[in-house]
Amino acid sequence: MQSLPTQTHTDTDYAIEIKDMDFYYGSFRAVKNVTLAIERQKITAIIGPSGCGKSTVLRSINRMNDLIPGTRVEGQILFHKQNIYDPRVDPVQIRRAIGMVFQRPNPFPKSIYENVAWGARINGYRGNMDELVESTLRKAALWDEVKDDLRKSALALSGGQQQRLCIARALAVEPEVILMDEPCSALDPIATLKIEDLMRELSVNYTIIIVTHNMQQAARASDLTAFFTMDEDRAGIMVEYGRTDQIFTNPRDKRTEDYITGRFG
Amino acid sequence: MNLSRQGHLWLATRHRFARIWQGIFLFSTLFALAALTTLLVTVINQAFGLVAVENKVAPSTLADRPLEQLSAGELEAILRDRLNSNRIRTLERNLGPLTDMPQERLYTLVLENVVRPQVVESFTLYESLTQRTEIITEVANNHPQAVIEWRNWLHPRFITTPMNPQPELAGVRTALLGSLYLILITMLIAFPIGVGAAIYLEEYADHRSRFNRIIQTNIDNLAGVPSIVYGILGLAIFVRALGFLTSGAVFGVTDSNGRTILSAGMTLALLILPVIIINAQEAIRAVPSSLREASYGLGATQWQTIWNHVLPYALPGILTGTILAMSRAIGETAPLILVGASTVIFNDPNGPFSKFTALPIQIYNWTARPQAEFRHAAAAAILVLLAALLTLNTAAILLRNRFSRR
User: Fold this and answer.
1) With pLDDT > 70 as the criterion, what percentage of chain B qualifies?
2) DSSP assignment, residue B126?
3) Domain count, chain B
4) pTM
5) Considering the domain boundaries, does residue B15 fall inside one?
6) Which of A15, A27, B45, B239 suits A52 as a labelling partner, its CA being 20 to 30 A distant?
7) If DSSP codes are grouped into helix, strand and coil, which group holds residue B253?
């Protein structure tokens, strides 16, 4: 197995390059011909109607779809110039470097402290764990709310706090890229705004890709936006990709315009 | 909505149907409760009551105090006084020198050999409580020598003494120890193998492969195979084919054949394996996929995910299945008869290669005896079995609650 370089910023302009990617559930092609270059330390939003394959594409980036039997990726996804679907690449290593935050907050049924510490521990972290937990919770803007009950069960937190804990948990293993799969869909508007502020702060150091149903959220929080839709054969395709203000004010494609103005079927 | 027009909603009919079903469910519960109560009442009715005892030698002629209170030396003196020297020699050859025996053992010997009490008539708890005067007159007519006394068939001595051909002296010590030993061996084998198989089948095996589907179907069917079939299997494999191992011959044990506690434990382990596997699979399948994804998403390997998240989450469910399986194993009789549980045995099991008996075997054996007194002993043994089962289950449930998600 080849080891991936851990230093960022040097080798390419892009954090991740998706090239001619097709995705199959069995014989059904769910996503076709996606080519997408994700810029470093930017927030890239993927928007589109239900069933257009945006979550599938996102979950392909850290090989999360490997867990679903009968799925297959064709094409390439480059991370540090290495195709992550190369048989020599270990998905465990990919997922450590490309973290993920899920649609519903899913903290481990353990203490708050243990939620943050576990990922670091299994990845061989040897430093001061208390410091790591504190600094990570601070990065996730959660420290002040939980510092007095780190031993409490994470399930006792509110939904918004749980989701920020999940972000902290992902940060603790020091990934380069963070994938967010509709992270605010189960949260109220105030908790949503907190997460968006947090994403903005994190984008200084991390590359963030977010799938969202919420167009205001994409417009508010992202630097770049990719619009996906469904083709006639029900396969997801990428229609348009560009700077967020351009996509929302001056879309080039008719389908994008229909979608963002709410005229989509 | 116009409330006066809701007649067409058939509300009254729907509510009536709901009440009928509720009544049916309530009836089922009450029926089960009644059946359970009947069982317990019947057993308890047999386990306590009046008996008419005829002593060959009245204890009052042996000593001026109750026999239990005599010292070991006094009891030994009674034995040497009352028994002829041949009998003493036989006893010492079988059991060791009288001088070395504890008081308890000597007391039993005095009862067995000197007093020789014989229960000539016994009564149930209900009869004893409601027809006391009739019982006294009846016994006085039939057995003028007999003394009427209250007998708890379930008493501490019943648990601490081994089997005895005389029902009034018989105990379940050997059977109780045998059952506990058996369940220990069974669980030591069945739990790790069962949970291991469940983990493999759920987490690693490819569910689409024909081979794994065949295995799965077989396990599901094996859970319903009658226990006597497992007995035959155990007899063929553990007692006969692997006799050199289960008899302990390869470990230097010479006085034994394959009909050991180890063979029986392995047979029971086979019997409950499917139950443990199916329940553990169910528990593992109930672990939410979001938990697995969270773990994988942090760069955990499959094994780290299983060990740190899947198993802890599934453990309460796995233990519930194990408790059910254990309850089944402790009550099994048929396979034990086939693999050769002894029905008359006086020595405690002292290792995996010893001969053994178990509580269900003892109960079965006693209920089949012609003397009515043994049925009282069987009732008491049933209570011991139920108590042992309850104790084991409580321990397992406490263990499970410790592991439960807070």
Assistant:
1) 97
2) H
3) 2
4) 0.82
5) no
6) A15
7) coil
